[in-house]
Specification:
The protein contains 10 helices and 18 strands. It has helices spanning 39-45, 94-97, 138-158, 177-186, 201-206, 220-226, 243-248, 271-277, 289-300, 317-325, and strands at 2-5, 14-17, 27-31, 34-36, 63-69, 81-84, 87-88, 108-109, 121-125, 129-131, 166-169, 190-195, 211-214, 231-236, 250-258, 280-283, 308-313, 332-336. β11 (166-169), α4 (177-186) and β12 (190-195) form a beta-alpha-beta unit. The radius of gyration is 19 Å and the shape is globular.
């Protein structure tokens, strides 16, 4: 079978023949049909994740049918449909045993320091897996941990959002933002979708946004026109480019929950705004198995639908990376495996 390899930081991915090998004792072998392309994959390729050691198969949006099980696997069996976390937790540290495995200091990340999803068959630890309910599409199962589950974690566990919460979502037209709108609406939030691409406005309203702001010059003044008290949560998908506007958009006691950063450079942090308004800036990392189950349940209920820009063959992965960097997509670009 074929796999896309990152052989050298900063270089295009290379398609080569690959054999997955037998699963280890606590692993299963999953047969995938598709996988999603995350912006993190692009940043890893460009060298912003120092733990990444080429050659490696990138990608971390894993879902499919179990074809083989290791000798020590008790919870799953061949033929079951599963979705995976984007990482392999250790399973025994303080964070793991308390249900916060996303904070596991020993975790290994698929596509970063263990082979990932840009191939048909992948070996995955049973500690990373949950079953996929009937009625969930292959696209939503693939992105459930990295996108839907991460957003759920950011809004629920970190942001403490709920019914009536005023939420701004930056980068709302991308693969994360387009699904974040739906997750936020599913928990009862009021949503402003912020985008720098005016041509995406109609789609963002269709996804459920109550208001859409399209601007490349900042959006905080427009937020305050809509909500004079400001936003209680900003889901920051873009990072550096929109960070100041995100802070200025906040209400007293509001928080910026940082999900992504497209340009990994330092930001200026206006401490006065944080101090005088009691604001918080919080990071959120991925999702837990519980978040993953919640995300899949939202999908099963029809509250979150996939926003798939299109589907590419594996051999066109580098072209897909370029299109994502140039913001040509609404939603996720998927790879057919």
């Amino acid at each position: 079978m074929k796999a896309a390899f990152l052989k050298e930081i900063g270089k295009d991915l290379v398609i080569e023949n690959f054999t997955v090998g037998e699963p280890e004792s606590d692993q299963v072998t999953i047969e995938q049909d598709i996988t999603g392309i995350c912006y993190r994959d692009i940043l890893e390729k460009e060298g912003f994740f120092p733990r990444m050691k080429p050659p490696i198969i990138p990608g971390h949006e894993i879902s499919g049918i179990i074809r083989k099980v290791g000798a020590g696997v008790k919870e799953f069996k061949a033929g079951e449909r599963v979705s995976s976390l984007i990482y392999e937790p250790c399973g025994f540290c303080e964070q793991c045993v308390s249900g916060r495995e996303n904070l596991c200091p020993r975790k290994k990340t698929y596509g970063e320091n263990i082979n990932g999803s840009y191939t048909k068959f992948v070996n995955v630890s049973q500690r990373s897996l949950v079953r996929v309910p009937e009625g969930v599409s292959k696209e939503l199962a693939s992105i459930a941990a990295c996108v839907t589950g991460m957003v759920y974690h950011a809004l629920d566990s970190v942001g403490e959002g709920g019914y009536g919460t005023r939420v701004v979502i930056t980068g709302a037209g991308g693969g994360v933002g387009s699904h974040a709108i739906q997750v936020a609406k599913a928990i009862g939030a009021e949503v402003i979708a912020a985008t720098s691409s005016k041509w995406k406005e109609e789609t963002l309203y269709r996804l459920g946004a109550d208001f859409v702001i399209s601007s490349s010059e900042g959006f905080d003044r427009e937020v305050k026109k809509i909500w004079p008290e400001g936003s209680q949560i900003v889901l920051e998908n873009t990072g550096n480019a929109t960070f100041t506007s995100s802070l200025r958009s906040l209400s007293f006691g509001g928080r910026v929950v940082v999900i992504g950063n497209l340009e990994p450079n330092p930001v200026s942090l206006p401490l006065g705004m944080i101090i005088l308004k009691g604001n918080r800036v919080e990071g959120t990392i991925s999702s837990t198995r519980n978040d993953l189950k919640k995300a899949l349940d939202l999908s099963k209920k029809g509250l979150v639908k996939e926003v798939k820009h299109d589907e590419r063959i594996l051999e066109n992965v580098n072209e897909a990376f370029a299109d994502i960097k140039q913001r040509k997509n609404i939603g996720r670009i998927m790879l057919k495996l």
